[in-house]
């Protein structure tokens, strides 16, 4: 590896790292982007929906050239019990005003890293960084195997479990309540079958989120995203929940696939990929110091993910933080000051943008989601209401309030529900 000193070394070619590399290279800085995977994206996974606004700001209308799968214009939220599924289904052209796309990371990440390379960044794949090089408390480069590589600033874009930053003692150990475990299956189906099943055309896409039985009442949820020739189907469950249950992720996934609301959607499909990954979900409660002397932390490595229960957003946060980190380094180069103070605009930029403002708005969401009634009682209540409304037995009808009250009493009572409503309003 070269002996030269780079303006910036970026570790990790996910959305955060590649965006930072692209912005820096475009501004004419000497950039090295290091990725441990054999290609960028080879080791990466996500549920599958990219909210487009952040990348659109960096590469306007990126979807015209990027390998996106489908543009989402149909959103379905499904409450599940063992035998039922109750859905809210919205299909609207208005979603076009807020472009979001289903993507597959192997293709998408390779494209974005390619954009950074085209802009002039040096991209080294198949290289794992083992350690940050520190001198007098300042980060001066990275070590990979025997290779020392030096830079004015290192960007840690190496994802949720940033070992190099942890080894340097700059970030605390991950706590089970701050991360969720994600599992995902990619199921291949012919394009025409997907379009018929989800009422789509060649370009449009649907997303479906599931709450309740899919996680057996554990804190978390399920997702299904339509790609061109495949479906991304998966679950996200808070890691701490697995400490107190017999359930295993593989069994949850199997039951989810076989649920009567899911099985017909994937019927005839071929399982082509199965993967697992952690999701940082602790919000501001797990965020490390983002700026250090000679070091910026971006994306998942900084815990910049928002899980509100009905959406997981990490990629737009990663992209925006990558851009903000690049801008801070461009300013630091002008001032020739790579200290914490010289790089402080990174934190300020994030504070002024949706990244830290949304995390602040939803900072009570992780605590609210710890409530098991959201994943057990409430789907049951909705089920009971719908069965009572539409299940005509030919017997004298029982008033809706009576049957619902019975369910509520079985599970705790009205006071709990009122408290949950109040907490929900405050958290969300
Ligand atoms: C199951 C699941 C569902 C999700 N669903 C969504 C969704 O629908 N929408 C959304 O916006 N977000 C979603 N997310 C979150 C989103 O995937 C992440 O927030 C996003 O990928 C973070 O990007 P990043 O660039 O920070 O990190 P990553 O994408 O994790 O990239 C880190 C990169 O660093 C590399 N790397 C790591 N260590 C080293 C090392 N030592 N040396 C060299 N390279 C290294 C990795 O190989 C990887 O390429 C989901 C996540 C999961 C797990």
Throw out a few tags for this protein.
428 residues, nine-stranded mixed beta sheet, 14 helices, 19 strands, globular, binds flavin-adenine dinucleotide, FixC-like, oxidoreductase activity, FixC-like_C
Give a quick precis of the structure.
The protein has helices at 15-26, 53-58, 105-119, 163-167, 191-198, 249-258, 263-266, 315-335, 345-352, 354-361, 365-368, 377-390, 400-411, 414-427; strands at 5-11, 31-35, 49-51, 68-80, 85-91, 100-103, 122-125, 131-135, 138-144, 147-156, 179-188, 204-212, 220-226, 230-238, 270-280, 291-292, 295-297, 306-307, 312-313. The protein has 428 residues and is of the alpha+beta class. A hairpin with a 2-residue loop joins β8 and β9.
> For the terminal residues, how far apart are their CA atoms?
49 Å
What would CATH call the architecture of the largest domain?
A: 3-Layer(bba) Sandwich
DSSP summary: helix tally:
14
Bound molecules: flavin-adenine dinucleotide
Kindly estimate the percentage of residues that lie in beta strands according to DSSP.
25-35%
Q: How many distinct folded domains?
A: 3
The CATH class of the largest domain is identified as Alpha Beta
The profile of the biggest β sheet is: 9 strands, mixed
Oligomeric state, counting identical vs distinct chains: single chain
- Write out the CATH superfamily name of the largest domain: FAD/NAD(P)-binding domain
Give the averaged pLDDT, no decimals.
92
Protein name: Oxidoreductase FixC
Family: Belongs to the ETF-QO/FixC family.
Organism: Desulfitobacterium metallireducens DSM 15288
Domain FAD-binding: 6-171
């Amino acid at each position: 590896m070269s002996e030269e000193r780079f303006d910036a070394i970026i570790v990790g070619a996910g959305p955060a790292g590649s965006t930072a590399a692209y912005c820096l290279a475009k501004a004419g800085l000497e950039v090295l982007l290091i990725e441990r995977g054999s290609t960028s994206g080879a080791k990466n996974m996500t549920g599958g929906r990219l909210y487009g606004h952040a990348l659109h700001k960096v590469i306007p209308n990126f979807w015209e050239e990027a390998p996106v799968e489908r543009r989402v214009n149909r959103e379905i939220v499904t409450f599940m019990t063992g035998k039922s599924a109750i859905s809210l289904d919205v299909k609207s052209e208005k979603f076009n005003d807020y472009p979001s796309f289903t993507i597959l990371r192997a293709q998408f990440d390779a494209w974005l890293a390619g954009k950074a390379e085209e802009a002039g960044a040096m991209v080294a794949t198949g290289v794992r960084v083992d350690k940050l090089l520190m001198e007098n408390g300042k980060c001066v480069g990275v070590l990979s195997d025997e290779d020392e590589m030096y830079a004015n600033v290192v960007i840690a874009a190496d994802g949720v479990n940033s070992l190099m930053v942890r080894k340097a003692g700059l970030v605390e150990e991950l706590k089970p309540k701050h991360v969720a475990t994600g599992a995902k299956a990619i199921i291949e189906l012919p394009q025409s079958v997907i379009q018929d099943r989800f009422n789509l055309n060649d370009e449009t896409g649907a997303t479906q989120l599931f709450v309740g039985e899919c996680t057996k009442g554990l804190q978390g949820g399920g997702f299904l995203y339509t790609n061109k020739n495949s479906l991304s189907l998966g679950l996200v469950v808070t890691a701490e929940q697995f400490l107190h249950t017999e359930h295993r992720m593989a069994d949850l996934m199997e039951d989810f696939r076989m649920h009567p609301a899911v099985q017909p959607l994937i019927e005839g499909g071929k399982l082509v990929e199965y993967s697992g990954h952690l999701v940082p979900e602790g919000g501001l409660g797990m965020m490390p110091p983002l700026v250090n002397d000679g070091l910026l932390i971006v994306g998942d490595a900084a815990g910049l993910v928002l899980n509100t229960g009905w959406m997981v957003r990490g990629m737009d946060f990663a992209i925006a933080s990558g851009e903000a980190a690049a801008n801070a380094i461009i300013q630091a180069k002008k001032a020739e000051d790579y200290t914490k103070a010289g790089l402080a605009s990174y934190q300020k930029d994030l504070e002024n943008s949706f990244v830290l403002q949304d995390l602040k708005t939803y900072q009570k969401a992780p605590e609210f989601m710890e409530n098991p009634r959201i994943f057990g009682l409430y789907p049951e209540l909705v089920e009971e209401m719908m069965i009572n409304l539409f299940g005509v037995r030919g017997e004298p009808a029982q008033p809706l309030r009576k049957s619902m009250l019975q369910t509520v009493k079985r599970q705790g009572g009205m006071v709990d529900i009122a408290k949950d409503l109040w907490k929900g309003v405050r958290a969300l």
